[in-house]
């Protein structure tokens, strides 16, 4: 058995909040056995941060998120290092079409090396909806390493990471891809 190559993570097309690399699988699956749904962002000008891990080098071509049943305002999705420095992001982008994945190509692809990172997702409207899963109490969110801050899109260059305190947050379906088409 020692001759088998462990290629976990080498064929990933996306790294996203509901993947094994992030919190969504752990948070979303136990809470939402019926599947993901359309959830309101709940608080205007709020940025939320979700940890994820990269196991193999991953060249990011695009960021994406899944719009829900109502589109409203602007969104930004990006990646931060553990020091809170923004490495890449979509920039403030109007939510476009309902119930579809929306993506933004990076001007220059960005190579994520094996390490711990955070997805940052910000929305300007409390009525914007995203495909995702609602999560419970702030204690639950803190347990999984999620944080938040008041921030309108675009995401700030450095975060002021605060423990999650909003009574209801969602884990949106969002992430990065190494493909130019999604």
Descriptive terms for the model:
four-stranded antiparallel sheet, 14 strands, 182 residues, disordered N terminus, seven-stranded antiparallel sheet, 2 helices, Jelly Rolls, mainly beta
Question: Helix and strand layout, with pairings?
Answer:
Elements: E1 14-16, H1 24-31, E2 37-40, E3 46-54, E4 58-66, E5 74-81, E6 86-89, E7 93-94, E8 101-112, E9 115-123, E10 129-135, H2 138-143, E11 147-150, E12 162-163, E13 169-172, E14 174-177
Antiparallel strand pairs: 1-14, 2-10, 3-9, 3-11, 4-8, 4-14, 5-6, 5-7, 5-9, 10-13, 11-12
Q: Can you offer a commentary on this structure?
A:
With 182 residues, the protein is mostly beta strands. The chain has a single domain, classed as Sandwich (Jelly Rolls), CATH 2.60.120. It is built from 2 helices and 14 strands, in the order βαβββββββββαββββ. Strands 3, 5, 6, 7, 9, 11 and 12 form a 7-stranded antiparallel β-sheet that branches. The protein is globular. The chain starts with 13 loop residues before the first strand and ends in a 5-residue tail after the last strand. The relative contact order is 0.30.
């Amino acid at each position: 058995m020692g001759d088998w190559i462990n290629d976990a993570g080498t064929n990933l097309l996306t790294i996203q909040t509901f993947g094994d690399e992030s919190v969504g699988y752990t948070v979303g699956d136990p809470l939402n056995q019926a599947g993901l749904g359309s959830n309101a962002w709940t608080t205007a000008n709020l940025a939320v941060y979700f940890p994820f891990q990269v196991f193999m080098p991953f060249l990011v071509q695009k960021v994406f998120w899944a719009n829900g049943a109502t589109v409203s305002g602007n969104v930004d999705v990006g990646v931060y290092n553990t020091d809170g420095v923004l490495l890449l992001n979509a920039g403030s982008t109007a939510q476009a079409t309902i119930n579809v994945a929306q993506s933004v190509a990076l001007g220059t692809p960005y190579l994520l090396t094996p390490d711990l990172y955070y997805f940052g997702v910000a929305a300007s409207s409390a009525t914007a909806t995203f495909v995702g899963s609602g999560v419970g109490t702030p204690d639950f969110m803190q347990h999984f390493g999620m944080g938040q801050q008041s921030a309108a899109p675009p995401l700030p260059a450095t975060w002021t990471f605060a423990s999650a305190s909003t009574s209801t947050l969602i884990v949106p379906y969002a992430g990065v891809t190494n493909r130019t088409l999604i």
